[in-house]
Amino acid sequence: MVLVVLLGIAAVAAVWRLRRGKTGPEVKTGSAANINEDLVAYSSQIICIRRAVESAQENPLFIDPLAAILAGDYKGDGKRSPRISIRTKYFDDFMESAVSTGTVKQIVLPAAGMDSRAYRLLVPEDATTYEIDQKNRCRDERKAHRGGY
């Protein structure tokens, strides 16, 4: 429930920024699917750059080596976002704590938004992680993890 609420807040924030004329990927007109894809991509890029900024701090709450790569050309304002950093740290710790017991064998990350948890967190070998997201988001994340960017 909490995860769904947080993802909804991130989507609303991205739409709000676009309506205020903030810079980001061009929003294309056309089918609802195209517009939705652009908003999801923009939201993912915002969060990626915020994770990259946190990762570059002297004493970061977490390190996400893929964040800057996944942000693509969007570089944002370079400011740290305590809200994003704390949220990321909380869910990272929650997931690592849950799998450390050895009883969790499947991790499902819905609407992952290129958060790269499937690649950067310590998960036991006998656990399986599933990322469920739009095709392009998953493809880009796999490509970045393999060093394809």
From TrEMBL:
- Signal peptide, first to last residue: 1-21
In terms of Gene3D superfamilies, this protein maps to: Vaccinia Virus protein VP39
Q: Does the keyword rRNA-binding apply?
A: no
Q: Which InterPro entries match?
A: Ppm1/Ppm2/Tcmp (IPR007213), SAM-dependent_MTases_sf (IPR029063)
Q: What is this protein called?
A: [Phosphatase 2A protein]-leucine-carboxy methyltransferase 1
Q: Organism, per UniProt? A: Rhodosorus marinus
Q: GO molecular function: any one?
A: methyltransferase activity
- Kindly state which keywords UniProt assigns to this record, in alphabetical order: Methyltransferase, Signal, Transferase
Indicate whether ATP-binding appears among the record's keywords: no
Report which superkingdom the organism of origin falls in. Eukaryota
Pfam families linked to this entry: LCM
A GO BP entry is: methylation
